[in-house]
Amino acid sequence: MDNVRRKHLSFRKARIKMLVSDQVAETCDACDRTEDLRVLHFSIYADFYSDRKSIKTDKTIFEL
Q: Which domain holds residue 39?
């Protein structure tokens, strides 16, 4: 009985480790997606404002 109990406990420990590692992996994936969205947002923001600056420059050229 003691041997069976020991195997059961080692199986439970292994299962808990797998569950924890899966949760950590899911958290890391969520962080990666958030970071990707943050980079995309910054890229769009930078492109938008660089276009606005070039439009202002074009207006001043045409006004001269």
A: 1-63
